[in-house]
Amino acid sequence: MGFGITIRVQGPYALFTRPEMKVERVSYDVITPSAARGIIEAVYWKPAIRWVIDKIHVLNEIKYTNIRRNEVSEKASTQIAKRIMNGANDPFYLSANDNRQQRASMVLKDVDYCIEAHFEIVQENAGPEDTVEKHYNIVLRRLKKGQYFNPPCLGTREFGATVELVEDTRTIPPSSLTGSKDLGWMLYDLDFSDPEDIRPRFFKAEMINGVIDLTTVGLVG
Amino acid sequence: MSNPIMNRYEFVLLYDVENGNPNGDPDAGNMPRIDPETGYGIVTDVCIKRKIRNYVEIMKQDEAGFKIYVKEGIPLNNQHALAYVANNIPVPSKENAKNVDAVTLLKLRKWMCDNFFDIRTFGAVMTTGVNCGQVRGPVQINFSRSVDPIVQQEVTITRVTVTRPEDIKTMGRKQIVPYGLYRVEGYISAKLANDLTKGTGFSEDDVELLWTALTNMFDCDHSASHGKMSAQKLFIFKHESELGNAPANQLFDVISISKKDEKVTPRNFSDYSIFVDKDKIPAGVSLIERL
């Protein structure tokens, strides 16, 4: 991992929704590689690179809390937008009172992760100027200054994340979790290689002394 | 329309509630939301966003470009302002509804952003068969949390009238917080506003309107359950660059709040002292106080 980075991500709440429990959302016990990738991409990404998550250090014990909110059941419809653009007389809004759903979320509390990741060059999108050093230095610079493209979040946008660069992996604090814990099947990431058919990939997550090593896992799906 | 914003912002809003319920918890019989482990009060992000939407709706009265997409109740004049729509896109047949091409999608997305303040600000999910029908807005708001643990009180009230002749007089309940000072933090990403493909066009005027909304939204939102809610302080951190000049958490740490007297139960905003550590503000970031 010549060009790997480590970041520390913290926040008071987090929600990494399990795909099988999306209506009354229930979070996974820990951050998914997919969400971790999203956090790094919020800081820096270009089509020429692809971030890969290597290790997730879970520093705090896993705590849940429950939040119920009023949400809307409908989405903005492009069809209706088009009809209105063409002068149709459809309602021009979404009524939050008529499309109300109360949904509960089981969210994580007080999370603290260290994420080790590296990036690979995507050859088909890379030009001659896309050197590894260039992208590596840009991401380091942004992390040191606290810059980002959009604010990183812990699963959903209402749970903002604090992201810091860890310069030396030896300074990662020891986790409060010990022993080995089987977290079951977890979402690894979505495979976007075929935009017509986006597929989720899963892996068997095992946490040993608070660390999930993703470099050796087999992906299913 | 002014230009999209070119600076990253973070903001901290302090607001308080006196004998009211800032945000009821549907899971707890509408008692004020509370973090059961610590006793701190919570107000959800969507509660604040709703107030911002309502304020803009009241202020702008369906002015072109400031419509609100997610509305409460039924607006009276929702069909008036369609005349300025100049795009002509044929509506596809039902079987092609899923296959909207990317160019059309961009057009639609732009049209939605141009027309609706809340989509331009907070984003929206648009249903399409193509996986890019999402608009991420530049403004992101966290949960609010009270500065000190709050006390939830249930107040019983009586009703003098009855609904039907055979009814007997009933009692009702109100849930209140005697006093709570809440703090909410938010972020505004310049890139999600001005980026050529991802940006929503959230402009300098919009950001100005957002600050006005944050300081005045409680004044347009009084109700029997809210009690006295007031915005007390709004601190805005403006970065010189689009990507920002300092980590957000470092800026949030500039604002610290403490009780003036540890032994007194706070019942008023003046029971708190707000300390702004100006030395902590890094170069390239300016602090603007709007209240």
TrEMBL record, chain A:
The keyword Isomerase does not apply. Its EC number is 3.1.-.-. It holds the Pfam family Cas_Cas5d. Coiled coil: none annotated. The keyword Lipid biosynthesis does not apply. Keywords: Antiviral defense, Endonuclease, Hydrolase, Nuclease, RNA-binding. It is an enzyme of class 3 (hydrolase). InterPro entries: CRISPR-assoc_prot_Cas5, CRISPR-assoc_prot_Cas5_N, CRISPR-assoc_prot_Cas5d. CRISPR (clustered regularly interspaced short palindromic repeat) is an adaptive immune system that provides protection against mobile genetic elements (viruses, transposable elements and conjugative plasmids). CRISPR clusters contain spacers, sequences complementary to antecedent mobile elements, and target invading nucleic acids. CRISPR clusters are transcribed and processed into CRISPR RNA (crRNA). This is pre-crRNA processing endonuclease. It comes from Flexilinea flocculi.
TrEMBL record, chain B:
InterPro entries: Cas7_Csh2/Csh2, CRISPR-assoc_prot_Cas7/Csd2. GO terms for biological process: maintenance of CRISPR repeat elements. This is CRISPR-associated protein, Csd2 family.
